[in-house]
Design a protein that fits this description.
The protein is of the alpha/beta class and 70 residues long. It has two helices and three strands. It is elongated. The model has no long low-confidence stretch (mean pLDDT 86).
């Protein structure tokens, strides 16, 4: 009988100027120990601190992937 691993859960999150809330959102579920989980953040050219905050989180946790239109 084949062994199946748990499916990967991906959360795709578009963001624009979300520095007031992005940390709260990422802290809600960003443990590096979560093996079947990833954040996919797409920043649409934010002009606030969103890029810096997302890059900081992505540097600390390989489960967080960040891309920007900037």
């Amino acid at each position: 009988m084949p062994t199946y691993s748990q499916p990967l859960v991906s959360i795709a999150m578009p963001v624009y100027n979300g520095d007031r809330y992005i940390c709260q959102a990422l802290d809600s579920r960003s443990s590096p120990d979560d093996r079947n989980f990833e954040w996919l953040i797409s920043d649409h050219a934010s002009t606030d601190y969103t890029p810096e905050l997302c890059q900081e989180y992505a540097a600390k946790n390989p489960k967080i992937k960040y891309s920007s239109d900037r």
